[in-house]
């Protein structure tokens, strides 16, 4: 089952329009302005090109139909409105059908800097620009198909592949380190942290990624880099489930983070 969220997604009306309040549009506007400044010279070229294509409004939350028109034209993808949190089954089903889930709520001012569950800003600003890229789009589609068909015990391994690519992926380019993962691109703290001397940054090896534990509520102690967005396409053509089987035999790496503190009962 999906965990509970204190947020509730907004329902589109019969025309697919979501009514955002003035305050919600203002929060969107401030988040976009801050993050555009933050990612300058740090986001990968493919992301910046995708951002031009989707042409996000800066003064209001975009309507999903606006994004769908661009994504359909570029890669055949769509965005789909979902509740604040969905389970793995629904997540993989949507990706397998080239539909990217977008939780239709926006964070409160109290959680302006960080919230654990993905909101409309994270999903749209973080991910939609990359979905205009054919290699990235194909990788995400293949990932959804594999995940939807996979057994529950294998989905945890697949989740690590998604985490260290689509969410927290980095790229080594001729111009230096660049970001393509939406979890970094939508977070000012994480964007700056990536360029500090704190995290470990390693070239991406699929089996290593499948064996790397992560926590969603801390800055990542390790990131993996590809050399080109086409590397993701190459990974999508591999026998990923055979690599999952190998990773299971080898077992997980020791976590590079402390265990989560349990609350006293």
TrEMBL record:
Fe cation binds at residues 122, 127, 167. Residues 1-265 form the Biopterin-dependent aromatic amino acid hydroxylase family profile domain. Pathway: Amino-acid degradation; L-phenylalanine degradation; acetoacetate and fumarate from L-phenylalanine: step 1/6. Its cofactor is Fe(2+). The keyword Iron applies. GO terms for molecular function: iron ion binding; phenylalanine 4-monooxygenase activity. Belongs to the biopterin-dependent aromatic amino acid hydroxylase family. This is Phenylalanine-4-hydroxylase. It comes from Pseudoalteromonas aurantia.
């Amino acid at each position: 089952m999906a965990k509970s969220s204190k947020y509730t997604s907004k329902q589109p009306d019969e025309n697919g329009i979501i009514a955002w309040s003035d305050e919600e549009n203002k929060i969107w506007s401030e988040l976009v302005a801050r993050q555009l400044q933050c990612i300058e010279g740090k986001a990968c070229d493919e992301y910046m090109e995708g951002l031009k294509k989707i042409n996000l409004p800066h003064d209001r939350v975009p309507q999903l139909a606006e994004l769908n028109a661009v994504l359909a034209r570029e890669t055949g993808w769509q965005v789909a409105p979902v509740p604040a949190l969905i389970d793995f089954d629904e997540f993989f089903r949507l990706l397998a059908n080239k539909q990217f889930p977008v939780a239709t709520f926006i964070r409160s001012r109290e959680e302006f800097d960080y919230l654990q569950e993905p909101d409309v800003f994270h999903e749209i600003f973080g991910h939609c620009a990359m979905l205009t890229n054919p290699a990235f789009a194909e990788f995400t589609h293949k990932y959804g198909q594999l995940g939807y068909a996979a057994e529950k015990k294998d989905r945890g391994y697949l989740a690590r592949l998604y985490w260290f690519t689509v969410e927290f992926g980095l790229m080594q380019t001729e111009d230096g380190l660049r970001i393509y993962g939406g979890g970094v691109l939508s977070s000012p703290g994480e964007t700056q942290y990536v360029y500090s001397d704190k995290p470990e940054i390693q070239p991406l090896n699929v089996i290593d990624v499948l064996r790397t534990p992560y926590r969603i509520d801390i800055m990542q102690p390790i990131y993996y880099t590809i050399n080109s967005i086409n590397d993701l396409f190459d990974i999508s053509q591999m026998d990923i489930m055979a690599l999952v089987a190998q990773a299971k035999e080898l077992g997980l790496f020791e976590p590079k983070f402390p265990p989560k503190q349990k609350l006293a009962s």
